[in-house]
Write a structure and sequence with these properties.
Layout (H helix, E strand, L loop, with lengths): L4 E5 L6 H13 L8 E5 L5 H8 L5 E4 L16 H7 L3 E4 L2 H7 L3 H13 L3 E6 L3 H5 L3 H12 L12 E4 L13 H18 L2 H6 L1 E4 L8 H5 L6 E4 L6 H8 L2
Parallel strand pairs: 1-2, 1-8, 2-3, 3-4, 4-5, 5-6, 6-7
Helix pairs in contact: 1-2, 1-11, 7-8
Length: 249
């Protein structure tokens, strides 16, 4: 059975002191709770701090991006080796904000997925459509393409070591959210795409999250769906009480 994963993507929020307050507050209320895999994804500056705080717990550490080269003259970038060195278990790749604001493409997503897997970091691959694409009836074709291109050249044995996140762009940070049944349908499409590329058995192992204005008020609706294995959470992961409610849905 796939273990649900709730990942908090802090985006560009939290100083180191603020990170300490948030993580310690969450850990205080999670003692002995292991039914869900909990993942903190702070900004690069707080990775080391959060790693120290979660030592000895079941919580995991994730970064929000990486570059696909291990070292070199790439000012401002962070390499997979650096993330491995700091203790990252996961890395978010292809988030819509990276695609929208920083020129991420299906091809660079694929390069980053391969780079993460090469050093033993599990990628969380984000896919999702814009409102215009959804209204034009392009959702299925776009999601299929993004999934196929992200997984191009990946060995079947590596698929179980990754997570896919369906994040409709129009629902991120807007307060709007896809209905649970619609999200489940798209996530089923993603799983079927993985099955077509690899096998049904491999697809059955892959955890696929929903992300897009997930809140304590609606998380149960999503988690009751057969294909949804967790949530990639933005704003609701920045406060102790709301994040705890999501984890304990």
């Amino acid at each position: 059975m796939r273990k649900p994963i709730i990942a908090g993507n802090w985006k560009m929020n939290k100083t180191i002191p603020e990170a300490k307050t948030l993580v310690t507050g969450v850990l205080d209320k999670l003692s002995g709770f292991n039914d869900v895999e909990v993942l903190f994804c702070p900004p690069f500056t707080a990775l080391s701090t959060v790693k120290e705080l979660i030592k000895g717990t079941s919580c995991k550490l994730g970064a929000q991006d990486l570059y696909w080269k291990e070292k070199g003259a790439f000012t401002g970038e962070v390499s997979p080796l650096m993330l491995k060195d700091v203790g990252c278990d996961y890395v978010i790749i292809g988030h819509s904000e990276r695609r929208q604001f920083f020129g991420e493409t299906d091809e660079t997503v694929n390069e980053k997925v391969k780079a993460a897997l090469a050093v033993g970091i599990k990628p969380i691959i984000c896919v999702g459509e814009s409102l215009a694409e959804r209204e034009a009836g392009e959702t299925n074709a776009l999601i299929t393409r993004q999934t196929e291109k992200a997984l191009a050249g990946i060995e079947a044995s590596a698929i179980a070591n990754m997570v896919i996140a369906y994040e409709p762009i129009w629902a991120i940070g807007t307060g709007k959210s896809s209905s649970a049944s619609d999200a489940n349908e798209v996530i089923g499409l993603i799983r079927n795409t993985v099955a077509r590329i690899f096998s049904k058995a491999i697809a059955a192992e892959v955890r696929i999250q929903y992300g897009g204005s997930v809140k304590p008020e609606n998380v149960k609706e999503y988690m009751s769906q057969s294909e949804i294995d967790g949530a990639l959470v933005g704003g609701a992961s920045l406060e102790v009480d709301s994040f705890i409610k999501l984890i304990r849905y």
